[in-house]
Amino acid sequence: MKQPNPYIVISAGGTGGHVYPAVSVAEYLVEQSHAVSWFGRSSGFEQSLLSNHKTVKYVPIYHVFYQGRHRYIKLMAKVLGLVLAWGRCLITMLLNRPRYVIVFGSYISFPVGLAALCLRIPLIIHEQNSVWGRANRMLAPFCKKALSGFETTKTFDNQLVTGNPLRLSWLNRVPEVSRPQSDPRMRILVLGGSQGAQTINQLMIDLIETYPLLTERFTIQWQTGSHLVDLTHEAVEIHSYIDRMYEAYSEADVLISRAGAMTVSEALFFSLPAVFIPYPYATDQHQYHNAIAAAKQNKQMTVMDKPTVTELYEHLSAMNAQRHNRLVGDNPLIQYNGSKTLAEFIL
User: Fold this and answer.
1) Fold match between 7-169+336-343 and 186-328?
2) In the chain, where the domains are located
3) Sign of the CA dihedral with 131 first, then 137, 46, and 23 last
C-alpha cells in the first residue's frame, strides 16, 4: 500500500529573516506534494504574507490580548498568550498528528516546538543567524536536528550547517554575473533590509555630496526602504523596494548593506564583494557575527562598523581597482541550497 505523503507543521514569525526562509521551505515541500500547515500569530507579518499562499494552511495559535504601554501587563499578557498557544498546538497536533515539526525562530516558535517535544513528534530547528535566537537555543538540545545557516558562536551536538534556504525560484539556478558591457563603471548595490536603514541612506547621501565626481566611476542601485531620499542623479537608481533581486545581485559589482542573515546568505550565493555595516542594536550583535562569518568565507567581504564617508570612499576605490578579480564560486556554502537540504531530512 502506498504511504501517504507526510503532513508537516512549520512555524516562524517576527521578521523577514525568520519568515522568508520558512516560506521557501514550505513552498518546496508543497511542490513535493506534501501537506503543510503554518502555525503563527493571528495578526502579523507572516499572516499577511501567507494570505496569498493558498497551498499552505495558516493556523493562528497566538492572539494578542493587550496592546497598551504598561510594561508588566504587556509581559504578563504575552506569557499568557504563549501558554494558550502551547495548549492550542497540543490539541491541534493530537487531532492531526504531523510527521515533523520545523521551527525557524521568534517567540511564536517556542510553544510550537515545545508541543512537538511533549508529543514526541520529531522536531527540526533552523537558525538563520550566527548567534542562536532565544527560542531556538532553548529548544535545540532536545530536537532531532539543529540546523544553521552559518557556523554559530554556540554549537550543539546535533547541529549541522546547511546554509540558509534562499528564494525557491533560485533553487536550480547557478549564480551568474551579468554586468552591462556598455557601462564600464563599477555598479554598487545598496540595501538596508526591506525597511531600509536610515544610517546607510544618510551615509550614501553624504558620500555623493562629498565626492561629486564619484559617479564618473560608480553607478548606484539603491533600495531606500520606507525612508524617502530626495536625490536625483543620472548615475543613481533609487527604489523603495527592489523586486528583481536575482538580477540586482547579478548586475552588481559590490554590495553595501546591513548584515541580516538572508542578505548575507544571498551575497555569499553570488560571491558578491560586500561592505557589511551591521545594525548595532541587533539582539546579541547577531548581525556583526553574521558579517564576520561571511568575511571568513569570502575575502572580498568586509565588515565596517560606523564607517566615515572618507573610509567608505577609499574602500570602494580599492575594490574598484580589484573588481576584475572577483572570486566567483569561492563560497563553500554555494553547494548548499537550504530548502532542499533541510527537506531531505523529511522526504
Assistant:
1) yes
2) 7-169+336-343, 186-328
3) positive
Determine how many CB atoms are found less than 10 A away from the CB of residue 16: 19
Which grid cell is 12? 516562524
Length of the chain measured in residues: 347
Report whether 111 contacts 90 (CB < 8 A): no
> 56 — phi, psi (to 5°)?
-110, 120
pLDDT digit string (tens) for 113-133?
Answer: 999 999 999 999 999 999 999
Give DSSP secondary structure letters for 280-337.
TTSGGGHHHHHHHHHHHH-TTEEE-SS--HHHHHHHHHHHHHHGGG--TT--GGGG--
Measured between alpha carbons, how far is 260 from 203 in angstroms, rounded to an integer?
19
pTM: 0.89
Fold for domain 186-328?
Rossmann fold (3.40.50)
Instruction: State the Cα–Cα distance between residues 243 and 49, nearest whole angstrom.
Output: 15
Running DSSP on this structure, what letter comes out for residue 146?
Answer: E
Phi, psi values for residue 337, rounded to 5°: -125, 115
Architecture of domain 7-169+336-343: 3-Layer(aba) Sandwich (3.40)
Q: How far is CA 215 from the centre of its chain?
A: 31
Amino acid identity of residue 223, one-letter, is: Q
Least Cα distance to 263 among 193, 162, 203 occurs for: 193
Say if residues 55 and 36 touch (Cβ distance below 8 Å): yes
Residue type, 11: S
| pLDDT of 338 strictly over 70 | no
CA contacts within 13 A on the Cβ side of 204: 35
d(CA 81, CA 65) in angstroms, rounded, equals 7
